[in-house]
């Protein structure tokens, strides 16, 4: 049985029908109603939609979402529902990615410090990594991003079923994000580590563990921020401003932090950033990590996938962009 029509049911019977469907199939039921006798059914469904109509507002008040007319259900599901899935999926995957990189870099370093618990990166930089330096891009990704034009979603019913199959949040997609995080963290550490062993930053200046950690933290932050740029499909002025602010925030923070002789008795970070910025190798690492890792791998993979193995999303993007 793929569908059922029930009529003349009591509120409890309506709720039981929804409960039975969800229990037996394991699927998510969207319960929609417009009156007080639909409240039990709406609350039983994993997604409840209430229609504000002549029978009062009880259904709308009890629902997860409220719409003025039944005709608005299509836009609620096909546009807003799809965008919510797409945005949440990318936001979660990106958050996994950036946290895996920062954790794996320190995990690799623990093998070289005898698993003593020595922190590779400065504590203040670690504290602000998620809180400030890389917090805005995933937030904007989860609020403003759109993978396909709204007109395409309303006019192409084939765009909707793919979400139930894990179009953006399935095993292969997560494996790709995790794999990239592992590769990037290994390259970040082992390309910078030889310079740490050589010990020289400039003549008469020695690279210590604090400078080593700062190089890795700076490279990681700008790599993570630039990685997010590649996955934005719908740019707005607020997103551009957010990325520019994120790029500048870290730079301004470390410049001010390095100018303070002593912070709560800690003097190890004093002037270290200025010493690094005077060394051409510091800028070479930034360019190498951000451009060298993302563009030959990520950009090339995205280009090959779009040209040789286009998805229905790619097809609709090309069709509606060319028509507009």
UniProtKB/TrEMBL annotation:
Segment forming the signal sequence: none
InterPro entries in alphabetical order: ATPase_P-typ_TM_dom_sf (IPR023298), HAD-like_sf (IPR036412), HAD_sf (IPR023214), P_typ_ATPase (IPR001757), P_typ_ATPase_c (IPR032630)
Residue span, P-type ATPase C-terminal domain: 60-311
An example Gene Ontology molecular-function term: ATPase-coupled intramembrane lipid transporter activity
One CC-aspect GO term: plasma membrane
Compartments in which it is found: Membrane
Protein name: P-type ATPase C-terminal domain-containing protein
């Amino acid at each position: 049985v793929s569908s059922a029509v029930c009529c003349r049911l009591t509120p409890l019977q309506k709720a039981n029908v929804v409960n039975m469907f969800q229990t037996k199939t394991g699927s998510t039921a969207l319960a929609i109603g417009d009156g007080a006798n639909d409240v039990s059914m709406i609350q039983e469904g994993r997604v409840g939609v209430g229609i504000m109509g002549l029978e009062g507002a009880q259904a709308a008040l009890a629902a997860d979402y409220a719409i003025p007319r039944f005709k608005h259900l299509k836009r609620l599901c096909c546009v807003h529902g799809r965008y919510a899935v797409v945005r949440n999926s990318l936001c979660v995957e990106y958050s996994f990615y950036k946290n895996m990189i920062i954790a794996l870099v320190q995990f690799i370093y623990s093998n070289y410090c005898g698993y003593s618990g020595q922190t590779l990166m400065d504590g203040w930089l670690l504290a602000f990594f998620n809180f400030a330096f890389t917090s805005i891009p995933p937030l904007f990704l989860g609020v403003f991003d759109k993978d396909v034009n709204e007109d395409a979603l309303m006019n192409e019913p084939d765009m909707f079923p793919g979400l139930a199959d894990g179009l953006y949040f399935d095993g292969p997609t997560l494996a790709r994000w995790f794999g990239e995080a592992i590769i990037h963290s290994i390259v970040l550490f082992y390309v910078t580590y030889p310079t740490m062993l050589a010990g020289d930053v400039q003549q008469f200046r020695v690279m210590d563990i604090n400078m080593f950690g700062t190089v890795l933290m700076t490279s990681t932050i700008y790599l993570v921020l630039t990685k997010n740029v590649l996955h934005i499909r719908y740019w707005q002025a607020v997103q551009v401003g957010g990325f520019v602010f994120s790029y500048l925030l870290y730079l301004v923070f470390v410049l001010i932090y390095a100018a303070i002789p002593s912070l709560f008795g800690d003097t190890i970070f004093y002037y270290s950033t200025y010493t690094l910025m005077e060394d051409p190798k510091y800028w070479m690492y930034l360019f190498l990590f951000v451009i060298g890792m993302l563009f030959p791998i990520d950009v090339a993979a995205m280009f090959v996938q779009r040209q040789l193995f286009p998805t229905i999303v790619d097809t609709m993007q090309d069709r509606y962009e060319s028509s507009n």
